[in-house]
Amino acid sequence: MESGAGKHWTEEEVKALLSVWSEKNIRKQLHGTLRNKGIFIYIAKRLQELGVCRDWKQCRAKYKNLKYEYRTVKYAHNSGDVTKTMKFFHDLDAILRYEPVTQLTAEENGRCSATETQLNTSPTTESVQ
């Protein structure tokens, strides 16, 4: 299967990316890593083993686009708009559901520091304030 920079990702290619992305060690490395070129080079090599010819830049771009689209749909669902959907939402939800979110908190001296909290997306759990 030949894929170039301007080619759309096929469903099979996206499924292969999601299967590699769903691996625990990959998810761990992607979380909180700003300079992640090496991780995406590794992901591109893994995809080549699965018959998907994409370079690391294409993999990173697709990863970012899928993550953005997932968060857009997730926000819409949380706001009551269940009409917004995406093709791989449930797969991405399984991957991203428990991803820690970095939040900024104000410290006593006025600076902000990053803290990690666990997202709980269960609709039955009430948040205690």
Number of strands: 2
Cα gyration radius (Å):
17 Å
Principal-axis shape equals globular
Please report the number of helical segments: 5
Structural class: mainly alpha
What does this structure look like?
Residues 107-129 are annotated as: Disordered. Pfam families: Myb_DNA-bind_4. This is Zinc finger and SCAN domain-containing protein 20. Residues 7-95 form the Myb/SANT-like DNA-binding domain. InterPro entries: Myb_DNA-bind_4. The chain is mainly α and 129 residues long. Helices cover 48% and strands 9% of the residues. The protein has helices spanning 11-21, 24-30, 37-49, 56-78, 89-96; strands spanning 101-106, 112-117. A two-stranded antiparallel ribbon has the order 1-2. Strand 1 (101-106) and strand 2 (112-117) form a beta hairpin. Helix 3 (37-49) packs across helix 4 (56-78). The protein is globular. 12% of the residues are buried.
